[in-house]
Design brief:
Elements lengths: L1 H24 L4 E2 L5 E2 L8 H6 L24
Antiparallel strand pairs: 1-2
Length: about 80
Amino acid sequence: MRSHFFILIACFIVLLATFSSVADAAYLPTKTRDNRLTSRGGEKLTNAQRIARGLPLNKPKRMFDAKLRPRAPVPS
């Protein structure tokens, strides 16, 4: 009877390890039709998260309009 208990515990540990590795696979990068690596779910990731998952970095975003010029000086 005691050996059955240990076998049951061992099976539980093996199943737990199997399901935890399957849960981690949900966050692996996948290839899309045009061969780009993306993450599942389409969530917005920071560049640090993208590096950790093996994805390419995001392009830098423009923080200002490049067409703007300094204003002309005004005499005081």
